[in-house]
Every structure is written in structure tokens, then in C-alpha cells.
Automatic annotation (TrEMBL):
Protein name per its UniProtKB record: Spermidine/putrescine ABC transporter permease
Family to which this protein belongs: Belongs to the binding-protein-dependent transport system permease family. CysTW subfamily.
Keyword Aminoacyl-tRNA synthetase: no
Organism: Entomoplasma freundtii
BP term (GO), one: transmembrane transport
Gene of this entry: potC
Topology with respect to the bilayer: Multi-pass membrane protein
Keywords: Cell membrane, Membrane, Transmembrane, Transmembrane helix, Transport
Length: 1001
């Protein structure tokens, strides 16, 4: 395994990086809507992308901001780098340290800091603040990219330019910027990329501007058209890289061609081949013969094999062996020369010693005598060493001569034995081998070991070089012999003579064409070339056309982006809505119908919407119920005139009496819709002005979508047994639940979630503070709203005691739908609309609610009477104190800002959304407030037909509204929606953060 990772670690890293991109590309062509199921190949999401007006507007905004901020950042960063290069190194280091702070600082800190600066400066958040923010974090990237390159500028070039009379501006244009060009291009690419995909800083400083990252972040869930956008972006990047590399290769080939033209080697190889062929043909004509070819296949095979062998042997140069032998020869020669130099060095040391002795005899200076004495001692030490080495060499030579004499005597004795004794053939061979070995040993002794080795090395070198030559020579000789058999010369006939003349003319024509081409290329690429005056031969236009072309392309791109941005930001209506809360095609339909432009903004929470109101004004918004109350109490909302709305609203008489607006749209001619009775009753009881009780949620808002919280159970046998044991469900009730999908709500308690967590089951919860605390509120006090400090503290203790901190309890955002849809849970708390979508994923249905080509196809996949796969229920259990555990109902509502400047168009848009209630609910997957839309979507054959009981919120098993069970102290039906309780809500959120922090820890 270790060897595998060592050999493939780079491939594994590349796979880790690129496999997610490949998956995204594949699923951008998926006909389905999730990565959990493959529905076949389709281009539907690319079509949806081009129809998505808000998404395309966000892309245009990102491109415009990235382009402008990159240009300005380059101007500032390059100028700053050039200025710092003139400073002392210590000053440069200090300023670069300051410039690097934004790079190492957390983006969220930078974003909040910039937001505070813009607020203090009283700037309106929008395109100006967004570009300024992007410039602020792009300049350091430009600076750290350009500065190292600037340090490589040769100061002698600047001095030469000054000597030639160049001023500072000319030095900048002609010397500095050409050197910095690669760094400037790299800095521009980095700045553009950082700006295009920035999210955090854009989120805090963008105001009315939504770039790509912000748009995707605020989506309720990632739609596949985002995969299509990512795929197209990857394709553009790959195309850009390929184009750049192709241009670089072309430029390199042109430079190579120019160099060959200057050296007169362009097409020289081809020209030589043609001339050689021409010479052969002319030789045949002059010799009155024609070369023909043998038809013997075996001769041709042998000939080709010989050519291949010659080629291989020629390529075999024995360089490695020769180099090794030459190194050995060098070492041996060095050793021999070193020994020879001992005698010369001995002679020099002797002379030096005699000279020093003479100087000592003559001098009377004590200091000089001491110095000479030290030198004399060093020379004596050297002379002693040399004498010892020379003595050793002489002794070695004497020993070698003595040994050589012994070897000679042994050789003589062996030869005498060989001559006088009668020996067998085997014994004679052994004696001869021994005599030969001793003769070699004698030669080695007499020559010296090093000299002998040197001679052998030189002989081996010569042998290798000769061997290679002899092999090539032999193979060439065989090849020449074969050529005489293959290439047969025959006398010319009239026919072959004409053919030979024609071939010569063709070759000559090819030579002339090739020469003309070379001449044309020379005149084109290197006209009047002179090495000393090349730079002055071209005109200014010829030298600058590339820069002018790039400038024109940049100006054209900037002009197009500016026009597109202006057109997309000249709008008549500003709308703020939750991410993925409307089919983007409906926005385009409204714009075309009324010939207006809509600035459609998205957000991910009520708190985000509230914070945006400090920096931006909407005409229409879609806050939740409790945020509507908060905004109304702060006098930010307009009282609605139901005379101008296509809603049958008998409750709105009081509102009509207080408004004097005209019926602008002649609504009497249009069919009015009716809202769901349960929702109307709930919202009508939601008092906003608590003093006189005359205003409620419906006075300020129109319901957009609504729903409630449900408990969802994965119907495994273990979970079914758990329901029997802990909640007291009978076998008959479990069987009924399996058939209908609906649990007996009179036995289902929110406490089952805590019991499941304590039993080690997987519990998936909606990650919202109020929803989490509503569980405890229902269990402890039978109400979703905690209205005292004591109630919040008790709820917090309930949640903290072996519940939220359990390892298998997960807090989920939008991923809750996929986790439940994939069956990765046992018990879950989720919105009824999310439960519907999770069931559809689990059932393998097409969950695209956007009106795509596959809508309704799931009806053919499953029977219309097939029940919901998961078990669900809304607790409606009666407690010992006579009160009922119920559920919480939420409603997101359309409201109009009091500062809206387009109220007439805002009413038109509300009516447009009311008319599209069915499409909106189908796309988002959440319950519509319009009664007719609810009935239509739950009819057989429609998308919620299998989930009718789950689609309708806040009803019991009989279809009666469960909120009628509980009464307050005055006997009124208690409100099930969350209330706006400023101080208590803040305390609740603080407790929730502590719970989450404890779970993470």
C-alpha cells in the first residue's frame, strides 16, 4: 500500500481535485433534479439557465464588478509597487507587511469593517460600495504579484535609458512595463478570479447588487441549472487555456521559423532531399540507365532489417562505458603523476631549505630570524614527508624487481618441466595457463600496478570504439551488397527515357516552388534583416498592433459589460424574496407582460432581510409572520388596499374604509381568489397593534406560502417497535399508519424526538432556534411561543439534558431534505413541504417543481393511490392539564415597503403572483395559501396527489384545524405561529448558540 501511494500520490491528488468537477459536469446533463437519481441525458437545465433572468443578471454583475475592480486594482497596485521600489529596503519591508494584512485577515472581519466604514460615510450600498470593497482586497494581490518581478528589473537598463535621453514616462513605458508584463497578466488573472467568486465581502457590502456567489448562497437548495453554469464556466476556462497554449505554440513556431530563415536553414532538409533525388535521376539519365526495383519480398525484408540494425548500432555509442573508462584513466594518470612529482618537489624543498639556512647565517635581526626559523621548520617537515614517500617508492620498486625475479624463476622452472617431463594433455594445458598468468603478473610487476591498469584501460577504450565502427562497417557492406540485388540498373528505352525526363522536371518544379516559398516567408518575416538595427526597421504600428488589439478588445468587452449591466440595473420594481421561492421564468414573464424590469433580490433568513433594510430599500418583500409584525411595529410597512388585489377578502372592510386609493386595475373584471380558511383565521388572530387590537397580519401582508412542522419517521421495523414501546401505538395503529402514511396524532408527542435521541437513534432536526425551542415549548407548556424568562430557561434545560448534545442528533439546513430523502435518519422534525419533497425523492419521483419537461412523469412511475412512504404526524395529544400538544404554523407573506416609489406596479406584481399561485407552490414544493391552487395540486394526476394529507397544514386526521384545541385565558383560540418577542427572542437565540457550541465541542 505504501508503495502504491508513493507511486500514485500525484494521481490521487488530481483525482481528489477533479472528480467533484467531473460529477458536476455529468449531472448538469441529468434529466432529474437530484444527484441521488439519474433520469437520463437531457439539456433541460441549460435551457433553464438561459431563461433564469435573475441568475444571468447576477453573472453580469459579477463580470462587471470583476472587470472594473481588476482594472482599478492594477492601476493602484502597479503604481504602488513602482513607488515602493524607489524606497529603501527597510521601508519596503514595512509597507509590504502592512499591505499583506488584508491577505491574512479573515474575510468576514474585512467585510464587516468595510460595511461599518460605508455606514459611517453614509454611502448608499450598491455597485459603488461593492466595487470599492473588491478593490480593497484586490490591491494587495496585485502588489505581492508585481513586486517580486519589479525587483528583477536591471538598474543598468534604467541607467542606459537615462543616458540615451529618456524621461521618466518613457522609462516606464519602454523599460519597466515590458519587464512587468508577465506579472501584470498574472495579477490581473488573480484579481479577476478573486473578485468574480467572492462571497463574504460582497454579501456584506453589495446592498442591491447580487453577484453569482451571493445568488447561489441564498438559494433554498442548489438547482441543476447551477451545474449547467459551472459546466459552461469550466468549458470557457478550458477553451481559454487551450487557446492561450495554441497561440503560444504558434508564436514559438513562428520564432523558430524566423530563426531558421535568418540562418538560411528553413526547409533546408527538404531541399537537400529533393536535390539528392534530382541528382540521382540526372545521373541515371546521363548514364543511360533506369533503376528498377526487385520484386523479391524476402530481399526487401532483409534490406529493411539491415537498415534498422545499422540505425540501432549507430545510436549505440557506448558513451556510458567510455565515460567510466576515461574516468578510471584520469584517476590512474593522476596517481602516477603525483608519484613522479615527489622527486621534483623533493628537489625544490632541498633548494628552499638551503636558501633559508643561508639567510639565517647572514641576518642579525632577531624578529626576521624567528620568522625564517618558522619557515625552515615547515620546509623540513615537508622534506621529511617527501623523503619517506620517495623511500617507500624506491623500496616498492626494489621489492617489485625482487618479486619479478622470483616470478621469472618460477616461469623458467615450469617451462623446463613442460619440456623435460612427459605430461598428459590436460596437465600441459594447465601448465601453459599458469605460465601465461605468471608472465602477465611479471609484466604488471615490472610496469607498476597503476601503469598496468592504465594500459589495460586505454586498450579497452580503443577496443570499444573499434568494435562499434567494425559492426557498422560490416552491416553497411551487407547493405550495399543487398542494394545491388534490389536496385537493378537497366538500359533506357524511349518510354523510360520520357518517364525519367518527366520525373526530373517534377522534382525541379518542386525545388523551384520550395525556393519561392522560402523567399516569400523571408520577405514576410525578416525583410531587410540586419542584426544591429532590427528594432528600428519596423514602424510604430507594426510594433504596437498587439497592444492596440488587446486594448480594443478590452474596451469592447468593457463597453458590452457596461451596457449589459446598465440595462439589467435600470429597473422599475425591487423585490426581496427567499432563495428559490419562485420560478425565475415567472419574473421574465411579468417583465414581458408589463414591459418593465424587476430587480429580484434573494436572502436566506429573516434576519438577513432585516439587516439589508439598513442599506437598501425594497418595494416588495416576503418576510415570515413574526418579521412582518416587527417591521409593522417599526412603521416600515404599507397598509394594503384590498380593493386593488384579486382576493376575495371579506375581512378587509376595515382596511378598505381607511384607504382612499382608486381601483387602478379594474379588478372587478378579474376572478378573485379565496385564501385557505384555516390560514386566514390564523393570520387574522395575529394582532400587530396590541393596544387597540384593530390591526392584524392581513392588514399589512398577503400570504405567499405557508406550512407547519411535522414529525417524520423512517418506517423500519426497529422504529415501528420503538413507537409501540415508547408512544403506546398498537399493532392496528401501526398497520393503519403504514397504509396511509399518517400516524395517530392523538398519541404522537414531540417528546418522541428526545426519547429517540436517548435511545441512540438518528434524529434529524430543522436548524432554526425557534423551531428547536418549539419542541420543548410544546412538551412543557403546550405552545410554540415561550413568553417568559422562566419558560425559556426550562425549555433550554429540556433540550440540553440528553437531547441536542447526543452524537446522532443532527441540526440540518437545506440538506435536511436530501438526508431524509436518502433514508439517512430514524426520526426527523421538518416542514410539511420539505417532508413532501423528501418523500418524493425517496419514492424516486421527479421532484422538479419548476414546470420542466418531466413534470408529472412520476405519475406514470407509481400508482396514484400509493401511500406516502415515510410515516408522518402532527402531534395533537391531550396532556394531563387538559391542554394539547399541537404544531407550529409558519407563513411567509408579501408586504409592501412604506418607502416604495412604485406602489401601483407593486400591486400588479402581487396580483400576478396570486394568479400564479399554482405554479409557485408546484415549483417551491410548499403549500399555497390559495384554496383553489391547493385543491388543484392535490387532484389525482397532479404532483401532490399522493401527499394530500401532508400537503395540507395544521389539520388533524379528520381535516379539522388542530389549533382550535387550545384556548388562552380569555377563551380565544391560541395563535400557533411564532410571535415577535424582541428581548425574549434574543435570549432564546443566545441559549440556542450555547447548545450548538456545546454540541460542536
Amino acid at each position: 500500500m505504501k508503495k502504491f501511494f508513493r507511486a500514485n500520490y500525484f494521481a490521487l491528488i488530481m483525482a481528489f481535485i477533479y472528480i467533484p468537477i467531473v460529477i458536476m459536469i455529468i449531472f448538469s446533463f441529468n434529466a432529474g433534479t437530484t444527484v441521488s437519481t439519474w433520469r437520463g441525458w437531457s439539456l433541460r437545465w441549460y435551457e433553464d439557465f438561459f431563461k433564469n433572468s435573475p441568475f444571468i443578471k447576477s453573472i453580469i454583475t459579477s463580470l462587471f464588478v470583476a472587470f472594473v475592480s481588476t482594472i482599478i486594482s492594477l492601476l493602484i497596485g502597479v503604481a504602488a509597487a513602482i513607488g515602493l521600489s524607489r524606497c529603501r529596503r527597510n521601508t519596503q519591508r514595512k509597507w509590504m507587511g502592512i499591505a499583506n494584512i488584508p491577505l491574512i485577515n479573515a474575510d468576514v472581519v474585512t467585510a464587516v469593517s468595510l460595511m461599518m466604514v460605508f455606514l459611517v460615510a453614509n454611502l448608499r450600498f450598491g455597485i459603488f460600495t461593492l466595487i470599492m470593497a473588491h478593490i480593497s482586497f484586490n490591491v494587495p494581490y496585485v502588489l505581492i504579484t508585481v513586486m517580486p518581478r519589479l525587483r528583477k528589473v536591471d538598474h543598468s537598463l534604467l541607467e542606459a535609458g537615462e543616458d540615451l535621453g529618456a524621461n521618466n514616462w518613457q522609462l516606464l513605458i519602454r523599460v519597466i512595463l515590458p519587464v512587468l508584463k508577465p506579472a501584470i497578466i498574472a495579477a490581473a488573472a488573480i484579481a479577476f478570479a478573486m473578485s468574480f467568486d467572492d462571497f463574504i465581502i460582497s454579501y456584506f457590502t453589495g446592498g442591491s447588487q447580487t453577484n453569482v456567489s451571493t445568488y447561489i448562497y441564498t438559494m433554498k437548495k442548489i438547482r441543476p441549472y447551477v451545474f449547467a453554469f459551472g459546466t459552461m464556466l469550466v468549458a470557457i476556462i478550458i477553451l481559454g487555456i487551450l487557446t492561450w497554449n495554441a497561440f503560444a505554440l504558434y508564436k514559438q513556431s513562428q520564432e523558430t521559423k524566423v530563426e531558421k530563415l535568418r540562418n538560411k536553414t528553413y526547409k533546408s532538409k527538404r531541399m537537400a532531399e529533393l536535390k539528392k533525388e534530382l541528382l540521382l535521376l540526372e545521373a541515371q539519365k546521363n548514364g543511360n540507365y533506369k533503376t528498377t526495383y526487385s520484386t523479391n519480398i524476402f530481399l526487401w525484408l532483409k534490406y529493411e532489417c539491415l537498415k534498422f540494425r545499422i540505425k540501432m548500432v549507430s545510436a549505440k555509442t557506448y558513451d556510458k562505458k567510455i565515460t567510466r573508462l576515461e574516468w578510471k584513466r584520469y584517476k590512474l594518470r593522476s596517481q602516477i603523476n603525483k608519484e613522479k612529482r615527489y622527486y621534483d618537489r623533493q628537489e625544490l624543498a632541498t633548494k628552499r631549505l638551503a636558501k633559508l639556512n643561508a639567510q639565517l647565517d647572514k641576518t642579525n635581526d632577531v624578529h626576521k630570524a624567528a620568522k625564517l626559523t618558522l619557515q625552515k621548520e615547515k620546509v623540513e617537515e615537508r622534506l621529511t614527508f617527501l623523503n619517506e614517500e620517495i623511500e617507500a617508492l624506491e623500496n616498492r620498486e626494489d621489492a617489485a624487481l625482487h618479486k619479478a625475479e622470483k616470478v621469472e624463476q618460477e616461469i623458467s622452472a615450469l617451462k623446463w618441466n613442460l619440456a623435460t617431463e612427459e605430461l598428459s594433455k590436460k596437465e600441459s594445458l594447465a601448465l601453459n595457463r599458469k605460465i601465461k598468468r605468471l608472465e602477465i603478473e611479471k609484466i604488471e610487476i615490472l610496469e607498476g600496478k597503476n601503469m598496468h591498469k592504465l594500459r589495460l584501460v586505454v586498450e579497452r577504450l580503443r577496443e570499444l570504439q573499434d568494435k562499434n565502427y567494425n559492426v557498422i562497417f560490416g552491416l553497411t557492406d551487407q547493405k550495399n551488397h543487398l542494394e545491388k540485388q534490389i536496385f537493378i540498373n537497366k538500359p533506357l528505352t524511349k518510354k523510360t527515357s520520357r518517364k525519367l525526363t518527366s520525373d526530373i522536371q517534377k522534382i525541379d518544379h518542386k525545388i523551384n516552388l520550395l525556393a519561392a516559398k522560402v523567399k516569400k516567408e523571408t520577405l514576410k518575416l525578416v525583410p531587410n534583416y540586419e542584426a544591429s538595427s532590427e528594432g528600428h526597421a519596423k514602424s510604430w504600428l507594426a510594433r504596437s498592433w498587439k497592444m492596440l488589439g488587446a486594448l480594443l478588445i478590452g474596451l469592447a468587452a468593457f463597453s458590452g459589460l457596461t451596457v449589459a449591466y446598465v440595462l439589467n440595473n435600470t429597473y422599475n420594481l425591487v423585490i426581496g424574496n427567499w432563495g428559490e421561492y419562485i420560478d425565475p421564468a415567472l419574473i421574465g414573464e411579468f417583465e414581458r407582460e408589463y414591459k418593465v424590469r424587476v430587480n429580484y433580490q434573494e436572502y436566506d433568513s429573516n434576519e438577513t432581510l432585516y439587516n439589508k433594510l439598513y442599506t437598501f430599500n425594497y418595494d416588495l418583500m416576503v418576510p415570515s409572520d413574526y418579521m412582518v409584525k416587527k417591521l409593522a411595529l417599526e412603521d416600515r410597512l404599507e397598509l394594503l388596499n384590498y380593493n386593488l388585489l384579486n382576493i376575495d377578502a371579506p375581512w378587509a372592510k376595515r382596511v378598505e374604509a381607511k384607504t382612499n386609493g382608486a381601483n387602478l386595475f379594474d379588478n372587478d373584471k378579474q376572478e378573485k381568489v379565496t385564501l385557505d380558511d384555516n390560514l386566514v383565521k390564523l393570520l387574522a388572530n395575529y394582532e400587530i397593534d396590541g393596544n387597540d387590537g384593530k390591526k392584524n397580519l392581513l392588514d399589512y401582508s398577503v400570504p405567499y406560502l405557508w406550512g407547519d412542522l411535522v414529525i417524520v419517521v423512517n418506517p423500519t421495523q426497529a422504529n415501528l417497535d420503538f413507537l409501540k414501546t415508547k408512544a403506546g401505538f398498537t399493532d392496528e395503529e401501526i398497520a393503519t399508519a403504514i397504509n396511509t402514511g399518517e400516524l395517530n396524532q392523538t398519541k404522537l408527542s414531540w417528546d418522541i424526538l428526545k426519547q429517540a435521541a436517548q435511545a441512540g437513534k438518528r434524529v434529524a432536526l430543522n436548524n432554526d432556534p425557534k423551531n428547536i425551542f418549539a419542541i420543548a415549548g410544546q412538551v412543557l407548556f403546550q405552545k410554540p411561543n415561550l413568553e417568559t424568562d422562566h419558560e425559556i430557561e426550562q425549555a433550554n434545560q429540556y433540550l440540553a439534558n440528553d437531547f441536542i448534545n447526543k452524537p446522532k442528533v443532527s441540526l440540518n439546513n437545506d440538506e435536511l431534505v436530501d438526508n431524509v430523502g436518502q433514508g439517512r435518519f430514524d426520526f426527523a422534525m421538518m416542514y410539511n413541504g420539505d417532508a413532501v419533497e423528501a418523500n418524493r425523492i425517496y419514492n424516486g419521483e421527479d421532484v422538479d417543481n419548476g414546470g420542466g419537461d418531466d413534470d408529472g412523469d412520476f405519475a406514470n412511475a407509481i400508482a396514484l393511490d400509493e401511500p406516502t412512504k415515510f410515516l408522518f404526524g402532527r402531534p395533537n395529544i391531550k396532556m394531563a392539564n387538559g391542554r394539547y400538544q399541537t404544531t407550529n404554523v409558519f407563513s411567509d407573506n408579501l408586504v409592501m415597503s412604506k418607502t416604495s416609489h412604485h406602489k401601483d406596479l407593486a400591486y400588479k406584481f402581487i396580483n400576478f403572483l396570486i394568479s400564479k399561485a399554482t405554479d409557485i407552490s408546484e415549483y417551491v414544493g410548499i403549500t399555497s395559501p390559495v384554496a383553489s391552487a391547493m385543491d388543484e395540486l392535490t387532484q389525482p394526476g397532479n404532483i401532490f396527489s399522493n401527499y394530500k394529507r401532508l400537503y395540507y397544514p395544521c389539520v388533524d386526521a379528520l381535516g379539522d384545524p388542530i389549533y382550535q384545541q387550545n384556548k388562552d385565558k380569555d377563551g380565544k383560540e391560541e395563535l400557533m405561529a411564532f410571535k415577535y418577542l424582541p428581548r425574549l427572542d434574543e435570549k432564546l437565540v443566545d441559549y440556542y448558540n450555547e447548545l450548538v457550541a456545546g454540541k460542536i465541542g
